[in-house]
Every structure is written in structure tokens, then in C-alpha cells.
Amino acid sequence: MTIAMYGPDLTFLGVRRCDLDNLPDADAVILGAPFDGGTSHRPGTRFGPMAMRQACYLPQDGSRPSLALRVDGLRDLRVFDAGDVEMFGGDVERSLSSLERAVHTVAASGAIPVVLGGDHSIALPDVTGVSRAHESVSVVHFDAHADTGEIEFGSLYGHGQPMRRLIESGAVRGDRFLQIGLRGYWPGPSILDWMAQHGMRSYEMSEIVARGLDECLSEAFAIATDGCDAVFLSVDVDVVDPGMAPGTGTPEPGGLTARQLLDAVRRCCLELPVAGLDVVEVSPPYDHAEITAYLGNRVVLEALSAIARRRRGDPWDPRQPLLAGR
Amino acid sequence: MTIAMYGPDLTFLGVRRCDLDNLPDADAVILGAPFDGGTSHRPGTRFGPMAMRQACYLPQDGSRPSLALRVDGLRDLRVFDAGDVEMFGGDVERSLSSLERAVHTVAASGAIPVVLGGDHSIALPDVTGVSRAHESVSVVHFDAHADTGEIEFGSLYGHGQPMRRLIESGAVRGDRFLQIGLRGYWPGPSILDWMAQHGMRSYEMSEIVARGLDECLSEAFAIATDGCDAVFLSVDVDVVDPGMAPGTGTPEPGGLTARQLLDAVRRCCLELPVAGLDVVEVSPPYDHAEITAYLGNRVVLEALSAIARRRRGDPWDPRQPLLAGR
Amino acid sequence: MTIAMYGPDLTFLGVRRCDLDNLPDADAVILGAPFDGGTSHRPGTRFGPMAMRQACYLPQDGSRPSLALRVDGLRDLRVFDAGDVEMFGGDVERSLSSLERAVHTVAASGAIPVVLGGDHSIALPDVTGVSRAHESVSVVHFDAHADTGEIEFGSLYGHGQPMRRLIESGAVRGDRFLQIGLRGYWPGPSILDWMAQHGMRSYEMSEIVARGLDECLSEAFAIATDGCDAVFLSVDVDVVDPGMAPGTGTPEPGGLTARQLLDAVRRCCLELPVAGLDVVEVSPPYDHAEITAYLGNRVVLEALSAIARRRRGDPWDPRQPLLAGR
Amino acid sequence: MTIAMYGPDLTFLGVRRCDLDNLPDADAVILGAPFDGGTSHRPGTRFGPMAMRQACYLPQDGSRPSLALRVDGLRDLRVFDAGDVEMFGGDVERSLSSLERAVHTVAASGAIPVVLGGDHSIALPDVTGVSRAHESVSVVHFDAHADTGEIEFGSLYGHGQPMRRLIESGAVRGDRFLQIGLRGYWPGPSILDWMAQHGMRSYEMSEIVARGLDECLSEAFAIATDGCDAVFLSVDVDVVDPGMAPGTGTPEPGGLTARQLLDAVRRCCLELPVAGLDVVEVSPPYDHAEITAYLGNRVVLEALSAIARRRRGDPWDPRQPLLAGR
Amino acid sequence: MTIAMYGPDLTFLGVRRCDLDNLPDADAVILGAPFDGGTSHRPGTRFGPMAMRQACYLPQDGSRPSLALRVDGLRDLRVFDAGDVEMFGGDVERSLSSLERAVHTVAASGAIPVVLGGDHSIALPDVTGVSRAHESVSVVHFDAHADTGEIEFGSLYGHGQPMRRLIESGAVRGDRFLQIGLRGYWPGPSILDWMAQHGMRSYEMSEIVARGLDECLSEAFAIATDGCDAVFLSVDVDVVDPGMAPGTGTPEPGGLTARQLLDAVRRCCLELPVAGLDVVEVSPPYDHAEITAYLGNRVVLEALSAIARRRRGDPWDPRQPLLAGR
Amino acid sequence: MTIAMYGPDLTFLGVRRCDLDNLPDADAVILGAPFDGGTSHRPGTRFGPMAMRQACYLPQDGSRPSLALRVDGLRDLRVFDAGDVEMFGGDVERSLSSLERAVHTVAASGAIPVVLGGDHSIALPDVTGVSRAHESVSVVHFDAHADTGEIEFGSLYGHGQPMRRLIESGAVRGDRFLQIGLRGYWPGPSILDWMAQHGMRSYEMSEIVARGLDECLSEAFAIATDGCDAVFLSVDVDVVDPGMAPGTGTPEPGGLTARQLLDAVRRCCLELPVAGLDVVEVSPPYDHAEITAYLGNRVVLEALSAIARRRRGDPWDPRQPLLAGR
Question: CDD domains from the entry (chains A, B, C, D, E, F) (predicted)?
């Protein structure tokens, strides 16, 4: 059911391969979504899964003990990689639908799907696939862009529209949709009105700078868990400033630092019942020295580490010295 | 009917804009096909039209007097640019069909469509659109690849299959399909058998090196004009060695030099009744210092210059000194 | 009077073209200053205007509604683009003088000139042209470098000297010259003495880090508006750290983040009577994935948006949620 | 015994993995030599094996039917990939000695070792390992450089010296050492004298241009097979012009075209009893768009295809049309 | 005793050359360590010394007056450049031992050795060489990685192990080893246990973010000077976020900003008795627009400036305006 | 009188420095012309001298024994490097005039000036300076462009005009001006008429391909030496195809190969009384992996080697095996 679309058949940092048609007991299953057919500008995210799977200078040995969190996200959790979903760029509808089946298969098995994009079109099947396996799912969405567009290039499906489709379809309640890091000059008033009408809560960078990211996150977390039993975490790498994440399709200056994103993802996965995750918009052709692919890889590791730490149950103090308690 | 899909609304080196819905008397009309939805590997050709239109260090003034051919291809012919056809990457069938309408509109008006790709998927609508406006069209096809694949990623349409679709549909007779520059490791025996059965004539690089490109071209030209009143010229920039044309999606070492390609395109347009033309697979994200975009631009100029010279009617001698006769 | 020096004739994100010799009623007029003839090190800023005009993934449609400021800087203001001033790199004096005429023409018409550089040599004509149309102009200058050099390579004119020339000529009072972001190892003591003697106020990064950028800006704004009716805002992109703005000629590590610059430019234009603006030292040959060009483009948009907001008159609160009040 | 030193554990284009300690019946065994510890200038060839193994736009399926030669070098031969030999860059002697053991193991098993470099230091163990398994081995060596240096940086081992060590050790007779493509400004007279004394035959580019590459090759082949039962083919990618192979450590302008190299490698393997092969000096950090990695990959495929064709036994005519006889 | 290993024979920004065998009275002596033979992943640091010596847009005149510190680190101190130590990449032990001799020679003469790396393997000889000339040396170590590995690729020496070797050999007490900026997924528990047992104090980024860098530094400084008369400062450029320092071998997202590093290095050299310094892991092949080389250059200048200021003795206030007191 | 304008003060591959005001007995003197103030498109050639001086993987030791020609161009001739002429980009007239003085000083001393450009504007002072020291100078000019423009950007001086200025001033007779490699779409008819009227002989690529480069060169050499006692050789690197020389300002596809240029330069210097030489239009910001800088460096070496061989007087046979006669 899955294949290696563009190049050799790798697993994420060497974790075990699994077969979607016969899933093992797993805590998390990685899926590649090598798709850039929904991109409105620079393509290249089809190579995102391959790049994020291997962007590391350490051995690809399926183990990554986190210095900060004192867990091994790839070993303390049962993490498998199910390979890439076949997603032909020229047929967005068929591709998204294949992905949704795969994500739902994982979620229905009780594992957390971790989807490596691909452009942000994939959030539609990612969140839908997860929401079908849970009572009520909220979304925490890091991005420079709201991705709530109506129709683009004559299509309902594309990387500027998935969040609208999700709310329209009822997969997610608009007032449980939290957006962090928006900025720039899109969308315009009518789409913003639509967003307001559906009760979305979007944190633009001005608010984040003025109030502090941590305060905004705490507020958003309270909303996300109000009446929802599961949270989907969608991370568009362009939430980070283009200087620190150049390998992406629609760069918008003035974003978070990489440090801020990693800390925020950590908090999400330590504090929220994350049931699904995607990391999108890493575009290797525009990257330099793999720095954006590394960042995408580290976002996945940070999330898995924090999920493992959350499951272990003991509190975590960022002020504790690294070597304390050894 | 046409738009500027990715960036500012430019015309090819500053030639006049025209409107597809109301075509002027034209000798040649440039169309952008900013599409990479059919690519099997590296994307990026969506930016090919924008790159090829402006890759020049001279003023964008709609004039290019050829030193070699002593004509101005942009002024001695009536050349217009109709802009880009909207081609959403995520919907290959709709996109190709929009392009076919545009190409046919141009061809039916009596002008030569000059299509700037885009990936090679577009050859299907390009040649079909032209063939519908002529009695019998043959194809001269420069490429490292035969592009005669059956189904890829579950789709009949993609950049590895257009030539098969053209022959299957009857748009072109297989035995009037001439391929120059093939090499490498694709396709395999069954597709080659299909090609042989349909009478295609494909010149692999070994034959070209052994016999000389000029001899192969002369032979091919004789076939192309045997019973056909029009020739479509399809130039995939990857026919050139990747060292001289790195900005492309499926590079295959061992190709022609840029000089050879320019001379071959010149001969085609001097000696054949060229009724349509596309230049494809220029992928700016993989280019360096715009050298592949420049090459694509010069292929277009070489073709237009030679068409202008052919129409002027007097013979051309490459051995004549540049300043002779002034 | 203006031309497209290097490539196609674009306007800034598709705003309307205007003619310098026959200016329309405008709030702001964009001018390209494609000049790197005054550069002491890496050239390339001649391509800055072309790059900044089109660095965007959104349609080039002359509209940019700011999420943060809730205005459309390109539509709520009457913004036109007058094209490029012809500035031959090999003749700095003639070039600067042509630019001064153009800037003065705009300023005298009552519009704000927005000059896209080019190297920082152009600040001399930019500020001079504006100052001739106002009673008394102060300068707020973001830069890693003081640009107050005496003579370089035997010339009074170059990108390291404009601020000195401006004070010497009397175009600006030294004690109304505010510099933000200086750092590094230039200039030496004698030039610093000259700066002190003329009452300049320069905020080096150590002071900015120790006191906070916002406190420094507030102090500077008070000086800038003390007895001056107009402020010229000159933004050298190298004020930002080279990691976030690599495409520049004289990179100096340890600068502002892109976020800080955008917020600072916003404050300037919200709080000060900005009468002219230039964005300089964007050098595309040294850029990667256009991130520096994007930053330059966003500095212009941020400024125009804030000017529009200032003119609307109602107060702005950065803590207001994006969708509040809709 | 072998590992994946730098990144995921891939096989060459997906051929089967094998274990050096328990070799299967094989015709050719690929070995990675990820070593740049012997480089005198630019490093990076440690990433050569990983890059050459996967540089292809086709599926990594262990099959590559050659259009030109009408064989599938990866399937008509039994080709396996034994992975990378561990070669710590900081210890050249230990590294080379590990490689020699591995190469000899393969050669002694009756298979052809195909070694992916790595810098040219590895030719010493490569040829030595092969020579120990054969009666008498000659070497055909494509390179811009003679690699016959004495001592460099205080070491006998490095990428400028392997050919001298091979002749000194008696692994190869100097008068059965054929060098093709030398040029430039190294070595100086004393080393050339040493080469002459040992009867080496080196074809500098001037001779190749004047006489033609094919004539030179025919002459070299006659020497190589005079009293030798086996030939080692060593291909330094810098024999090709840097324009077509920029990703290398010591580029020397004025080389062969990629086409010439591929045709020459084909002739070697069609006409000579090749018993071992290495492809060296592909340095990914200096490559662009993978073009040099692609070239290295194609050199390996060309060699394997031609070996398969030679074993099939029927004559090959480059002038035969691609589709003839189907 | 020293040479120019890779390219022309430059001195650091034009300071005077000196001869290691006959050292002048110097305050600081620069040594190049062009070595990447100990690198576990991307090489290229062999070109670090050449790149850091000349990365500047100002004249290479041996003078750099610091705006912030009001001293000229290259003139107020007697700074010389002794050139590169010959360090053959293929022989790590011999190379490190040559470097140790050179560093000790400088330290024993009473000057501060300033070593330009090179990969971090060189910290072993750098600190050892300095420790042999002082009573008791502590180490302040900026890095993303602890570099306390046991054996890698079969070798005790490499860029992941120097800190362990230093503590094992007794050159430095483990409880006077301060590490700033660690993060990511290496090393694992057993090495961390070893570090704890030896009393190392390592500040991971979570602690730095939570407590603030300045508080952590103050605490570390107190430890470093407790019973030690000298401090060695080792700066691995990968402590900075890869977005701001891409030109390095083992990038780990989430690091310091360049501004933070410069300020921290300044504080070290203002407040501590720095007796030796190295700046390592600048890898030009992976750099873009020289930004990482510039950063390395500025770290050296910041250190020398602060040492000069410390020696001058008067207090320094970062809040003082640049032009105050002139 | 000369300086190091952009970076460290290097000599060409380590040859001896000399002082223009006090020239030694020299056969050839290298001068840097770091000037791009006359460029009509991409700048960057100001860094050409620095790049060409050091582009080599061999030691910078002032010795380069040519394999092909069996001389050491840097030792058999007395070659010195006089450094860079100060050429402020913003003042083309002053800059060109400084260069002319320097070139004339060298030529008048009896040495051959070897000028490293810089854009092609410098040919005007280069040839003028040489012509003033000789009876009658002809020019052999390798270039894609005729460089015979009238006025550009309002200036008589720029890189598109030097050849016209030289003929107008009488420095060179039009009918002793030989151009090799022209192609593309510039200049137009009126300039071509002017060229014809002045008797220039320009070999466009079509003629070169049809007749062969060697035949064209032989014909050109006969003209060049007809009544002239000295030849100036001007090599614009853009005569080579952009694929092999991307680092240049005005790339024109379809050029010579690097091999052809090196062989042609060799013939010029073996067969003609070359009295001056420039190598221009190498633009490092657009280069990749220094391949264009290497090519420029090798053009200089090829020329100096051939001049040395010509002076030695014995005939040279390209067919002689490398090791023959040792």
C-alpha cells in the first residue's frame, strides 16, 4: 500500500518498517506524503519525506535519546515507519484520498500517525483521518498562513485551503482550531470574516511578540482541550523565519526562531493529548545545507520525545541541569 | 483566458502581448505552460515559462537580430505572447485540456504556437492542438528519453508518456515520429517493442556519435516530410548534457552539447515546415546562474530566427563570414 | 525619464505604473535605484529593485491587506511605481544626481518617495531630494554601519559615505540623525569623533541589547521629531543578522532579527511623520532562496501599511487578537 | 564487516545486499569506500558512495536495461552490494588496509569488485586486492592527474600517490599502466622521469585531441592485454571537464566530455577482460544538482552493461538503430 | 614549522606574520589548524582557517577598532599570525601532536594561542598545549555537542571525543569543565553518566532558555575561576542555530543566535583570565555567502577586543551610547 | 601605485611581487583590474583578479610545469605580479585611465602585461597601453560578443564598447582586429555595418563549426601578423559555453568548450608575437565550485607556458607522447 516514491526506501532515522495492511502494536507510525501537487508557488515538498527521514549526522539506528527530556522518543515509544503513500502530484483528489485512508488506518489502530509532508494540502486528509478515529479533535496549527482559502486555481484542494475544508466538513469545530504564528498579507477580509464566524482563534505574530509566545500557547491549550479528547498538531515549517528555514515554498519574513518552534512543539506534546501530527512544507530544492530538513526532522523528534515523556508521567523541569540526578 | 501564474506578467523578451480570445494576425504566438504536475521526479518546471521569457542580458525590447542568420526572429516575424495558460499542478487532465484548447486556437488561426513548458506532459496537448489544425503532422523530438511510457503512478498522463498517447490517439503516425538523443536506461524492452511496432525512428546517442548528428538529422528530416505537411518540434532540454543544462528534472549524462542542440534546432526550422514548437523541462530550482533558462530562451530564438530565414527564402551558408556582404 | 535597467519592466507587486514627468495624485511613489557603483565590496544591489518588486508568492495584483495592521498599504494609499532611474554604475556622480532629481520630483508633488536600492550611496540623493521639499527633515537610519566615511577609493561618493555628505551639505542636522543597529569594527576613532561633534545619536547593538530595542526607539523618535516636520527612514538590510539576510554586500554578524526590523519599521511609520523611505543593500547574487529580497519587499509593505494605518488615525493595539472585532 | 558510514544503508540502485563474510555467487560486488582522508585539497568524497548509489530518477529496483547495449547490467549479471567498508578519515593506513581485505575477498571469490570512492587513495588497495587474485593485472586509468607522487604532507598514502605505490610494490608492472586524460601542471619533471623509467604510457589531452581518443584507446588496449590476463579500470571523475563534473576535489579545466568518458568506459568493458573497477573523486559538497553523482552512477552502469554484453558474446554495432531488430 | 596548507599564505586580517621557532613578544598568536580528519560527518573544516582569516569586507590591514568596546583588538594587543600547522587529514594522531607542540610553544612564550579550526578534534591538543603552560586550566566550551565520546570509528581521536580525552589525561579537571549550548540527541546515558561522575557542568538549551543565558554564564564563570588561574575558551560555531551558521558539519537546530554568541564570548574575555582560545567547525563548503566564516572571524575579533579591554582595566558599560564621551 | 582592493594581497599562484614604480627585469607582469563598473548586466568581475590568482589545488609556489608544453611558464619566464590597480567602480573614466598608465608602464619596460579583469571595459586601456609601446599592434579577441557598441547608458565607456573605442582612437587598425567565437543576438545591423566598414574580421560560431576552429585560427593569424609587430590577446571567458563557464556576466549559450579555448590560446601564444594579454569577465558571484575561476587561471597559465615555449624556439608536436624523450 505504500512505496518509496522518490528514491531509496528509507525509514525515519532507521526505525522499523511496518506494513499498513498489517499494522503492529505501535505508539506512532510514520507516513510519508511526498506530494506537492497542491502548491500555489514553489514546489519541491515531494522530497520532504525523504529529506526529513535522513537529515541527521548520527547513525540511522532508530534511537534518539533526548538530552532535554531524558527519554528516547524512538525507543521508549514503539515507532514504526510505514513508508510513503503513493501520491501522484497531478491528481490531488486521488492523492489526498489515498492519504486519508492510510492515516485513518493508523489512527484506528490506536497509534499516532506522524505524517511527513508534502505541502499543506495534506492536512485535510491527515486531520480527517485522525478525526474519524476519535470523539472530538481540536487542531493546533503552527503556520505563517491561515490556509483557509476558498478556491484556488479552480480547485477546492490545495495547500492554501485545507483548514477551511476541515471546518466545512465538520471534521473539526472552528472554535477548536488554534493557529499560531500567522503574519503577512494573506488572507484578505472576506476569508478573515469567515474564520471569525467559525470561531477560529488565530495568533498573529504581533500578538505573540506583545504577549509572549508562552502566554499565547497556554491560552490556546486551554481552548484546545475544552471538550476535545484529542489534538492534532500541524506544523508548517514556514512558521519559522525564512532565515532559519529557507527550504520552503511560501516564505514569510518575521517568523519564530527555530528554538521557539522546538520549545512550542515540546510544550504541545507534553501538555496536550496529541493524537496525530504532520510536519509540512519542507522543500529541499530551496534548502541550503539541509538546514530546513534538519529542522523538520527535529520537530518530529521533539514531538515524539515529549509524547514519550508525557506517557512516562513524571513532571519535567526545564531548569534542571543536564547532568543533575545522574 | 491566460494569466501570469507565478509572478509578474511578462512577455517573451518584451514582444507584444496578445489575447487568445481575439488573436491578431500573427506568425507565431508564445504560450506559457507553467506546469509540473506530470513530473515523475524533480519538479520546478512550473517556473520554466517565467525563466525562459526573461533569461537575457539584453533589453527586453522585442527585437533579436541573429548574427548567424541575419534576420530578426522577433521582428521579421509577427510574434506575440499570449501569456500563461492556467494549469493547476494538482489536476493534470484539466490542465492539459486547457492547454490543448489554447494551442489549437493559435494553430487554427494560422500562427505557429511556441509553447514554453512546463514538464513534457504538455507535448500531448501541444501536438494534438497543432495536429487538429493540419492535414498530417510529424514530430521531431529532441530528448534523452522516449517518453512513451504506459501508465505511471496510476495515471495515463505525465511527462514520461505523452508520445505514446499521441500515437495511440492517432494525432501522429508512429512512423512519422523521429526521436533524437535518447540514451540511458529507460524504457525497457516491452515499451521498446511497442515503439518498434508503431514504426518510430529513435536515434540513440551511440548511433549519433557513430554516424554524426548531421547525417542522422538529414535522414530523419526525409522521414518527417514524407507525406506530412507540417512538423511539430519538441525540444526537451535534457537532450543536452546535464553539465550544460543542469536545471532539469531527469538529467541523463552523455548528451549533446548546447552548440549541437542550437545547430540542430536551426536546421529543423530552416529545412522543415515547422508548424508548432515546445521547449520543455527547464526547471529553475535546479539551475545555476540561469544557464539552463538561457539555453531554453536561445532555443526559442534560434527556432524563430530560422523560421524567419526560411520564409525569406534565400539560401543560407554557415561558412559565410559574419561581416561579408555588408 | 525612467527605464527598466536590468530585465523586464515590472511594477512593485503589480501597483499602477506612473510617469515621473506627469505624476498623478499619489500618496507614495516607488522608484528603482538599480545602482551598485558605490559599493566598496560585494556588488549586486543593481538587481535589488527588480528582486524586491516581485519577491512574493501572492499574485502581483497591487493589493496587500496587512493581517497585523488591518489596512491595505497598496490600496488604502494611492501607490504608484515610476520605474527605475537610469543609473550607470560607472558614473556615480551623474547617477546620484539623476536620482536626486527623481526623488525631489516625487517629494515636491506631495507624495512619499519609496526608493528601492541599490547600494547605500543612494541615501545622499534620496534624503537630499526629500529635504528640499520639506522644512526640516530628520533621518532614522537602520544599519550595521554608520556610513559616515570621508573619502573612499578617491571618491566622495560611495555606500560608506552618504550620511557624512548629508550632514556636511546641511540637508540634515547632525543632531537629528538617528542610527540604529551599528556594530562591528568600522568606523575608527576619527570618524566617530566627527559624528560626535555633529551631535549624531547612534545606537550600537550593545546598547540595544542592554536597554531593549523599544526603549531605544522611543528615545530616538523623540529626538527625530524635535523641531523637524518630516522624517526620512533609511533601511539598510544589513542591520539584520547575516543569517537572516545573507543577500547583502557587507554582512556584519550579530544583527537584529527580521522580526525586530519589521516591528521597528512599523513603529517608525505609525509614530513618525515619514516623508521618504529607502530600502537598500539587497544583493540578489548573494541571496539564497530569495529570502533577503522577500525581507526587503516586506519592509516596504510594512512601511506602507503603517503609513496607511497612521493616516486612518485610530489607535493600534498589537495585543488585539487577529479575528477580534470582525 | 561493512557498515553505512554516512547515512542510511542503501544498495546501489536497489540491487541485493550481500555479506562480505559470506559471499554469494556473484558476477560483481559493489563496495563503498567512503574515504576522503587522503585528499590534498577539497574533501567530500566520503559522501561519494552514498551519492552514486542513489543518483537516479528511476526506481531503485535493481534493474537498468541499457538502451545502447541491449542488456540489463544489474540483472544479466549477478550484482550485489556489500555496503561500505569502515574507513576512518583520520587513519589512512588502517582504512586502506581494511579496504584491501574487502576488495581481495571479492576478487578471490571470482566476482568483479566495483568500488565506489572515495578519493583516489583507494586505488592502491583496490588494485592490490584485485592483483592478488589474478596472474597479472594491467591498469587502465582515466584521470586528469598521474597520481604518481612520492610523499605528500609527510605521508606515503594519499590521493596523489597510489599509482606509484602500486608499481613500487610490484602489484602492477609500470609498462602495463595506461593513463588517459592527463593535463595541467602536475607532476613535475622528476616524477615524470620516474614514470618514464617504469615504462608507463600516459596520454595527455594534447595527444588525445591530436590523434583522437579512439585511436589512443585502441593503442592502449593492445598494451594492456599484452601478457596480462586481467585489467583494472580506475575512473577518476575529474578526467571530465569541470564544467560537466564540478563535484570533485581537484578540477582541471580542459577535460573529456561526459559523453566521451561514457563511450570510453564502454569500450574498455566491451574489449578488455576487466577484473576490477573503481569510480573515484565524486565530491557531493561541490556538486550542483547532483550532476557529478549522476555521472559517477552512469559510469558504473555503463561498465556493468558492457561487461554483461561482452559476456553475452555477440558483436555490438553502435550504428544499429535503437529499434532495429525488435 | 608552519605552512599554508590550502591556498595562499595569508595572515588573519593582515596582522603581522611570525615564526613559531622564533616567537616575538606577543600577546596573542594565531595558529591555523586546517584539519578535518577527525570529522564524523560532513568534512570541510580544513578550509576554516583560510576562510576565517579573510572573511571581511574591510581592508586586511591588521586593525579592527571595536565600536562596542572602544579598543583595537589587533593593535592594542600585539597579535601575530604564525600560519598553519601542517595537519594531514589522513593521520589524526600525528596531526594532533604537531598542533599540540605549536600551541604549547605559543602558550609557553606567554602569549595567548588563538587556534582557527579545523574540526573539534583539535581541542585536545589546544587545551593540552595551554594546560602544560599554566598551573590549572578550566574550560568554557560553547557547543551543541558535549564531545565526550569514547571511541568512534575505532579511534580515540576525533571531533566527538576531545573533551573526554582532556579529562582522562588530567589536562583539565572534570569539575572545571563548563559546557554551554548543548542540545539534541547525543550523547546517550552512559556517556552522560561518565560526564556526571567527572563533575562536568553542562548547560543544555532548555536550561539556558528557562534561566537566561546571562545567569547561566555568571554561574559558570564562578566555577571556572574557582581555583584555576587560566581559562581556555573553546567555541564550536555549531552552538549557533544552523540558520545563522549553516557552514558547519553537524548542525543541530535550536541554537543560540549569533548575537548571543558574540555577547557571551565578549563576557568570557572581559571577565575571565582567558589563556587560550579556539574557534572550530567552520566548514566553508557548506557555507552560504560566507556568513559562517564571517561569524567565526567576528568571534575571534570579539575575543581579542574583550581581552584588550580587560587588560586596559577600566569598567565597560554596554548601556553607554556609542558616541558618548568623545 | 597598486593595492589589494578586495581582500588579501596575493600574487598569482605565488609568483614574486613587484612594484610598478620600480619594475624589475621581467618577461611578464601580472596586473589586477578589479573593476565591474562598466558592466551592462551582472556585476562581480571585481573579484575576478582575486579569484583567478588563487584558483588552484596545487601549492601557490610560483611554479607550474606544463605537462603538454614541457616548460614552466612561471619559472622559465620572469613573471611578477604588480598587484591591483585601484579602480573605483563608480568612476569608469578615472579607473580606465589609471589602468592604462599601469599597462603602459609594463609594456614600455619590455615586459608583457597580463591583465586579470575585471569586465571587458578594460580592454580599452589594456590594448591602448600596449599599443603605445609598440609599432603596430593587432588584436586577437575571443568573445561571444563583438564589444563594438557606440554609447550605452549614456557612456562611451563600458564592457560593450571597448573595441570600437580602440579602432576609433587609432590604437588598432580595424582590419587587424580578429574576433573569434561571436554568436547570439548582438549587435544589430548598424554596428555590424560599422565593423565591416572598418575591415574587422569576426568569426561567428556558425563559421567556426562549419570550417573548424583550427582553420579559422590559421586564417586569422595570417591577418594578425600582416604588417603588425605585436599582437594583443584578449580573452573573454564567455567565449566558452555557459555550461563550462557559468561565472560570467553575459552568458551566451553555444560557445566553445574549455578544451577548445585552451588549445586556441596555446596556438596564439606559440605562433604569434603576443605583447599583451587580458582575461576578463570572470564573475565569482555567479560561479560554481570555482570552475570559471579555474578556467581563467588556466588560460593565463596556458598563455605563459606557450610564450615560454615559443621563446625556447624548438618545435612542438602535440602528438608526442607525454613521457617520450625522457
Answer: Agmatinase-like
